[in-house]
């Protein structure tokens, strides 16, 4: 399938911002380019009833979004973990994504601002996410969330960390998420994973070239042996059974396409309820481009459908 026709304008703007080939940039420059795209491509900012900043017991910053019109009583909740290659992103980069999710899913959204590499390499990010999700679940009612209707979602590196949080939660036998949503997740950063066809075929496809991806991974995993740890490569976990129902979103022009598909297959083989939605004409990072791509609304509606379906089934 050809690349989505709407992407022509997106790629032109990204080129203007210097964000189409980040492989020759420093991490500081990557972060600067990443923050610039929001103003031009992310779309309008949906108004919320309130946005509240919180801190977990481990000192991890959290941000709660409540859309207008939810009514009284405990509400469904969705934890969101941002992408950015473990080196970029935060509350600002995914603010509009969180607002749109809160609005379309009719729920409270809790964003996690985990520590970034290279200042805080692996395993800082999974440690923050695992501890924060546990804290959110333990304090759900105090935050106005029904713990039985608490899901978790994330994109790219955040999709990887979402998968990790679900595995850790299952291993610790603490609390059940009603669902997981993995948006073009990174699931295999091992030496073998880097050889997957999509990583090779899409090595020069913007906005994430093979060089840029490797630079991010080198910052996050300075010890290559860590790449085979399930917290860095959740596809390599020894057991994928008894995990929350999963929606996995992939893009045809994404270097992470094949490992997302592989994770969907692995979960299904382990008996997990899986919905795989493939956007054949899309690039990596498209969920953040709601002001330029109609596919973003379709993806958001799919997430809302899955979230609602899983609440009813839990």
Description:
The active site is at 156. Pfam families: Abhydrolase_3. Belongs to the 'GDXG' lipolytic enzyme family. InterPro entries: AB_hydrolase_3 (IPR013094), AB_hydrolase_fold (IPR029058), GDXG_lipolytic_enzyme (IPR050300), Lipase_GDXG_put_SER_AS (IPR033140). The protein is α/β, with parallel strands linked by helices and 314 residues long. The chain has a single domain (7-313), classed as Alpha/Beta hydrolase fold, catalytic domain (Rossmann fold). Helices cover 37% and strands 18% of the residues. The protein has nine helices and eight strands. β3 (75-81), α3 (95-105) and β4 (108-112) form a beta-alpha-beta unit. The mean pLDDT is 94.
Name the descriptors.
314 residues, alpha/beta, Rossmann fold, eight-stranded mixed beta sheet, 9 helices, 37% helix, globular
CATH architecture verdict: 3-Layer(aba) Sandwich
State the end-to-end CA separation: 36 Å
Backbone structural class:
alpha/beta
Q: Supply the CATH class.
A: Alpha Beta
Give the overall pLDDT as a whole number: 94
Count of alpha/pi helices: 9
Low-confidence stretches: none
Estimate nothing, just give the exact number of structural domains: 1
What gyration radius follows from the Cα positions, in whole Å?
A: 18 Å
What gross morphology would you assign?
globular
CATH topology: Rossmann fold
Strand order of the largest sheet: 1-2-4-3-5-6-7-8
Reported for the largest beta sheet, the result is: 8 strands, mixed
State the helical fraction.
25-40%
What is the total tally of β strands?
8
Q: What is the string of SSEs from the N terminus onward?
A: HHEEEHEHEHEHHEHEH
Range of strand content? 15-25%
Instruction: Write the CATH homologous superfamily.
Output: Alpha/Beta hydrolase fold, catalytic domain
